[in-house]
Amino acid sequence: MTVQRGDIELAGLCKSYDGLTNVVQGVNLKIPNGAYCCFLGPSGCGKTTILRMIAGHEDPTDGEILIGGGNVVGLPPVARGTAMMFQSYALFPHLTVRDNIAFALRVRGLSKTDRYRQTDAMIEKVRLTELANRLPANLSGGQQQRVALARAAITEPRVLLLDEPLSALDEQLRVQMRTELRRMQRDLGITFVHVTHSQLEAIALADLVVVMEKGEIKQAGPAREVYASPRDRYVAEFLGGQNVFSGAVAAVDDEHATFTAPELRAVSVPIGTGHVSRGDRIDIAVRRDDIDLVRPGKDLSAATSSIASRVLAVEYQGNFVKVLLDAIGTDEFVAYVPERIFFKDPYTIGDVVMASWPTDHARLLR
User: Fold this and answer.
1) pTM score of the predicted model
2) In total, how many domains does the chain have?
């Protein structure tokens, strides 16, 4: 399959429906050729609008969309080298798997011999050979999704756009299809742009995760970077896996800031390249899996920070136990304790504990 460059650049991209409220506000982003990019955010954040503008189903109010170095604003969808896979799959119920996938080639005027040759090669690639003559009603949800994906990919797009492609599937099938999507993206070697509201889905799939809020990009980067090193409180809380504190800076040295909050003893955080002064209000994040729980009175390392707390809830999650604490200074403080460690000395609701973490694992948020 011959594929043209599918790198994407969004430059000053804006979209307004009433001339007053920008659904998308000055978005700037570069997506490398052959990358798997996930736009992640709550409903109404503008992620689907961006997808539709890339596809050509919406026109931007301002800004440029470059694909392969060329500005595609104003071009019809068919001239952009993109294909879109919709949430509903939109398969033709009266056509077999083979004819559903071949339909786009039929519209393009390929001979029956040529379109079935290409279709059969694609059917093999998506592992549907034994189901080629079935109707969509006789397929599982995951099989229907593979048909929809193959039908979009058969046109040899340079960019494949996916709008919430896994939302209609149950949890077990979503996990299976994440693996399938990633495998197909690598096999096809084209750029995938995937819209989702699922944090786990984005982290599991994407080379590039783009976190959005109210039409703006809050952070974009590799999945591990965005998850482990959120820039601000919104990203830390939206992605989950982080405890976020707020407080006032009480002291600053070359490497650390010490901050306090009402009923919270002094806690230290590395300042890195940030700049803080005494009296500043700051937010810090600590990963939930960095939290150790110990009984009161146990000696702690000088390289750790800690707060006294009480257990509010305990939830068994399989390979770890989620412990909800009533720590002061945060709306929700959670420790993810490995199962084997937790059950050596289990905690129950009401127990007083010290929640500690390596000081240098805390992160100062913007």
Assistant:
1) 0.87
2) 2
